[in-house]
Amino acid sequence: MPDAARRLKSLAEQLLGAPLPVRIRAWDGSEAGPPGAPTLVVRNRRALRRLMWKPGELGLARAWVAGDLDVEGDLYAALDRLAGFIWQREEDARTLRESLRDPEFRSAARSLIGLAAPFLPPSPPQEEMRRRGTLHLHTKGSDRQAISHHYDVGNDFYELVLGPSMVYSCAYWESEDSTLENAQRDKLELISRKLDLKPGMRLLDVGCGWGSMAIHAAREHGVTVVGVTLSQEQAAYGRKRIAEEGLTDRIEIRVQDYRDVRDGPYDAISSIGMAEHVGAERYLEYAHDLHALLKPGGRLLNHQIARRPQADESSYTVDDFIDAYVFPGGELAPVGSTVGLLERAGFEVRDVEAIREHYALTLRRWVANLEAHWKEGQRLTSPGRARIWRLYMAASALAFEHNHIGVNQVLAVKTSEVGASGMPLRARDWN
Q1: Which of 253, 315, 327, 422 is 20 to 30 Å apart from 90, CA to CA?
Q2: What CATH number was assigned to the domain covering residues 4-116?
Q3: Keywords in UniProt for this one (predicted)?
Q4: Can you list the alpha helix ranges (DSSP code H) found in 67-177?
């Protein structure tokens, strides 16, 4: 009689020291676990081998991307229930090391190894970033490699997920009933107002994506724009959109590292969802570079995801799944650290707006877009890549909802030598 699911449930609970909060369906068709709960589908023994060779998040990620693991039912509910077991940190690692001394724990581990036989290490899925040892040094070459891994996966795929706005950052919602397109338009307009864009001004859009901010600023506010990206596919798509809008005389899209921009000064700079790629070691350099590119009185709008601060910042490690499959070399910092570094570079920080709930709403819409066109999404990129995007966007939505991460718009000014900021006496006149 098939019993792999019952054995898996029992072994998992012994190893984890807690009841398994989801139902399990194993490769032999057997099921075990709480009725009505989301079902974790273990399609084959290879899923177990991935977990045994890479315990924790990376092993689970590899099994998910390869299709060895799946979820039936509400993906958000499944991730919510499994969150405590998936995202293990140093304290969990210490607990595991202590458990290895327990005879019952070692017996359960041996049984799991037997169930996973033959116990050979499976190759990582092809979608995993192949390490070259320099990603977290954030050289120009490694940043170009990381950006290409994330963004050069097909513009058609991003159109399917993001919708017509082609904006890959947190939207700004008037209400949960708003459309994604309206919310993204409102975000671009909010940024334009914070930067106080006016006809004749020059805007530098750092990490310009597919050109949405550049088009909005030029069309709605009469500015000239230089947008820089490291993605060849983004640049080609953005240039095509700009030509269709008749704005080629007002917008230039360059494939260029922000560190190589030399044609300042600019009246304003927007950096929307780009600074997460800069890295802690390079962040002060990034802030100095943008400060140098602005005119006195010029404004910077830095729109950036942030993590919660830790008691011991020296022990912070990047997320294994995100680093291997989504944003290689990406790093999140607490908003206080970001503000401090901008100020050290000479900026005067004038406003910080936290909008994390808005990102949760945005991500849920992107997931819904992908799920509604699932077969097409797999065709446009790969089944593994589509699975990566679905998992990371759903998990990120929950992370924003539970305040594990946030997103902030930081408005900073290059104050003139005489102390003039050009800011209105009453803040937030852009609302």
Answers
A1: 327
A2: 3.30.1050
A3: Lipid metabolism, Methyltransferase, S-adenosyl-L-methionine, Transferase
A4: 75-86, 90-99, 103-116, 140-151, 155-162
Please state the length of the chain.
431
Structure confidence at residue 15 (pLDDT): 72
Strand order in the sheet with 266-272: 251-255, 224-229, 202-206, 266-272, 294-307, 405-413, 348-354
Distance CA(327)–CA(318), nearest Å, equals 10
Tens-place pLDDT, residues 360-390:
999 999 999 999 999 999 999 999 999 999 9
Distance, in Å, from the CA atom of 136 to the CA atom of 143, rounded to the nearest integer, reads 9
Domain spans, the chain = 4-116, 135-413
- Would you say the C-alpha torsion 235, 239, 241, 242 has a positive or negative sign? positive
Positive or negative, the CA dihedral 23, 24, 28, 30 is negative
Q: What is the DSSP annotation of 84-102?
A: HHHS--HHHHHHHHHHTT-
With b for 16 or more beta-carbon neighbours within 10 A and e for fewer, the 16-34 pattern comes to eeeebbbbbbbbeebbbbe
Please give the share of the chain, as a percent, with pLDDT higher than 90: 66
- The DSSP 8-state label assigned to residue 323 in this structure reads I
Q: How far apart are CA 41 and CA 309, in angstroms?
A: 35
Instruction: Pull the structure tokens for residue 64.
Output: 């998910």
* Whole-number Å distance between alpha carbons of 412 and 194: 10
Does domain 135-413 bear CATH number 3.40.50.150?
yes
Q: What local confidence, expressed as pLDDT, does residue 25 receive?
A: 96
pLDDT for position 427: 64
What residues of the chain score a pLDDT lower than 70? Answer: 1-2, 85-114, 116-117, 119, 130-137, 140-152, 315, 427, 431
Contact between 209 and 238 (Cβ < 8 Å): yes
Q: Work out the angle at residue 166's Cα, subtended by the Cα atoms of residues 369 and 303, and round it to the nearest 5 degrees.
A: 105
325: CB partners within 8 A, 6+ apart: 61, 65, 127, 128, 129, 388, 392
